[in-house]
Amino acid sequence: MAQTKKKLMLLGGLRYLLPVIEAAHRHDIHVITVDYLPDNIAHKYSDEYHNVSIIDKEAVLELAQQLQIDGIMSFAVDPGVVAAAYTAEKMGLPFQCSYEAACILQDKSRFRKFLADNGFNVPNARGYNEGDDALKDVDYFNWPVIVKPVDSAGSKGVTRVDNPADLPAAIVHALDCSPSRHFIIEDFLEKEGSSSDTDSFSVDGNLVFCTFNNQYFDEDAENEYTPAAYSWPSSMSQWAQDELRSELQRLVSLLDMKTGLYNIETRLCANGKAYIMEVSPRAGGNRLAEMLKYVTGEDIIERATLAAVGEEFLPIVKGADQTKQHIVEIILHANQSGTFSHLEIAPELKPIVIEEDLWIKSGTKVEAFTGANMAIGTLALKANSHEDVSRIIQQVKHSVRVVVL
After folding, report:
1. Domains of the chain, CATH where assigned
2. Residue 21: which of 265, 333, 301, 240 has the closest Cα?
3. How far apart are CA 305 and CA 163, in angstroms?
4. What is the mean pLDDT of the chain?
5. Parallel, antiparallel or unpaired: strands 260-268 and 274-280
6. Does the pLDDT of residue 264 top 60, yes or no?
7. Using CA atoms, how far apart are residues 96 and 109, in angstroms rounded to an integer?
8. How many Å apart are CA 321 and CA 201, to the nearest integer?
9. How far is CA 129 from CA 33, 168, 171, 172, 332, in A?
10. What's the CA gap between 370 and 375, in Å, rounded?
11. Which of 354, 300, 351 shows the shortest CA–CA distance to 330?
12. What is the SS3 assignment for 231?
């Protein structure tokens, strides 16, 4: 009698899911993609698709039970994380963390409170449902502040506010981008150097693969808080990386997290303190886990895919998270709405391009870069040193151009 294939449910249909689908198919795993957008690209590569909202946890659970799945992921898809954790817990399936832990991690307000209650470095922060309540608290914060939805990713709805008079508009913007209509205000933390936004991996509650990088922004973009480039390794002070690794392990232990991928944002600030900014039990967007294969030589996507269905995977040895190659990833985007013409790469950069992944064709309508969902592709380059990385980043505005008409 032939062995029945294991079934993996993936919430969402973005192109970030394609390497997960490829990994699953290499191991003869049946892939089911789920969201309410049937034209999303991942559905063309999965084995079956179901039209269900991924933020409706009861609907996701009902479908998962009906299909008798063996595992569930919301890989690089932030809105589906809570439903994935809920479904996994109800069905006794593998997942990075409990439903309760996912609810804490996915709500910026609850996460800040958890960090504060457990003695982590944390900015002054409060969550709100109503703008009027926030306006009464202007004296609580150390200005400037950051206003953002508690439950959105990709920097959507985020505004820095320097003057209390500008707070109402920022609140409206945050609420418009929040599925739960809930927002948070926190002190703006001036960073030392670059912040870090990259992926890590735990096995049985041990953070065995922990990476840091440099995250860069485009000041000319419509939303200057949307990441526009990354580089590995991180230039953050080693003591700060060591402290953050220790604090991240403490967080993993406190929340009783298990095995799987996490997207983790951290930063060293001008006040001399290192902060955990965000931790999500999913891969990051912008193909971060894919880039880590270039950086470290390790395929954590394949491991996460196998872990999700309870299959054994290649062990992660100590030191596997160390940088073997200096890598720069550029997030291709338009700084104005219009019609995409072509991508220009300066001749001196072309020899070090290791991957060009352009998602649109000439003549396609594009929108200004207001969030990660407005990216039109990625460019990966191999550098020889920190100095090379700095040079590439400094020149990127002139050496990589998205031409829009």
Report:
1. 7-93 (3.40.50.20), 124-187 (3.30.1490.20), 196-404 (3.30.470.20)
2. 301
3. 46
4. 95
5. antiparallel
6. yes
7. 21
8. 10
9. 33, 13, 10, 11, 35
10. 9
11. 354
12. strand
